[in-house]
């Protein structure tokens, strides 16, 4: 399965790197392919290293203005013109999406993917990996949107909140009929 991971390229502390590394190792050992922003920095590097060391494949989708941070030696690397094209390519190459911790770019990617799913532009499973409770606030906001009628799909069909990498991957594999 090609699993797109949206996440930060920042250097982060162990409460975020540990769950990311654990998920990456599970992904690689499971024979899955990481589809991600292609960066060789921060949390993106941690995940790519973990997938590669565990035997998984790497598909990077960088963007021209960040190509100097691209990871060398990938199985596949694509360079998009801009961030919009990058998001579209990442979604196109993915069978499933996992959103890990990140900043404004990651939040933009997450909301864009959820909005597209809400409108039926894709049916791929989406997981928010809630490491150290990072997405507790977003989870609460999405629940409120669901309860007050702002979502045309039930929240449970839109996104799955995983507290660890094992439950994230189990959900994705079950959604893909691999379990």
Keywords:
7 helices, globular, 18% strand
Q: From the alpha-carbon coordinates, what is the Rg to the nearest angstrom?
A: 15 Å
Largest sheet: 7 strands, parallel
Global mean pLDDT: 95
H/E element sequence: EHEHEEHEHEHHEH
Proportion in β-strands: 15-25%
N-C termini distance:
13 Å
Number of strands: 7
Overall SS class? alpha/beta
Biggest β-sheet: strands ordered side by side in the sheet? 4-3-2-1-5-6-7
Helical content class: 40-55%
Describe the global form.
Answer: globular
Helix count equals 7
Uncertain stretches: none
Descriptive account of the structure:
It is built from 7 helices and 7 strands; from the N terminus they run E-H-E-H-E-E-H-E-H-E-H-H-E-H. The chain has 179 residues and is α/β, with parallel strands linked by helices. The chain has a 7-stranded parallel beta sheet, sandwiched between helices. Helix 1 runs parallel beside helix 2. The longest helix has 16 residues. It starts with a strand and ends with a helix. The model has no long low-confidence stretch (mean pLDDT 95).
Condensed summary:
This protein is α/β, with parallel strands linked by helices. 45% of the residues lie in helices and 18% in strands.
Task: Write the topology of this structure.
Blueprint: E1 2-6, H1 14-29, E2 33-36, H2 42-53, E3 57-63, E4 76-80, H3 83-93, E5 96-99, H4 104-118, E6 126-129, H5 136-147, H6 155-158, E7 160-162, H7 165-175
